[in-house]
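Q: Transposase IS66 C-terminal domain-containing protein, please. Structure only.
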Amino acid sequence: MFSNTPRGARGSAIMYSVVETAKENHLSPHHYLLYLFETLPAIDLNNKEEIDKVLPWSTDLPSRCRVPKKSEVNKKQLQNQLLLYIFELLYAYFV
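A: Structure for Transposase IS66 C-terminal domain-containing protein:
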């Protein structure tokens, strides 16, 4: 999107992919990303079973990551919050 370097473009692409996959799996991108940032440092990345538990389609994810059915009404608000959150993450990562 607003990437000045290949590294920035790669970071943007990764974030976009994670967010869109979360949305396709009816997760709140904000809560799912928070869960990942809290969980990933503590797991063994060489252990496939541990990684499978944090993937967006896993049934082991905490309920706070899931989007309630009535959230369709607030879809635009959620999208705006998500965009703001992504920009905050990218800013923190690259600055």
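A: Brief note, in case it's useful. The mean pLDDT is 87.
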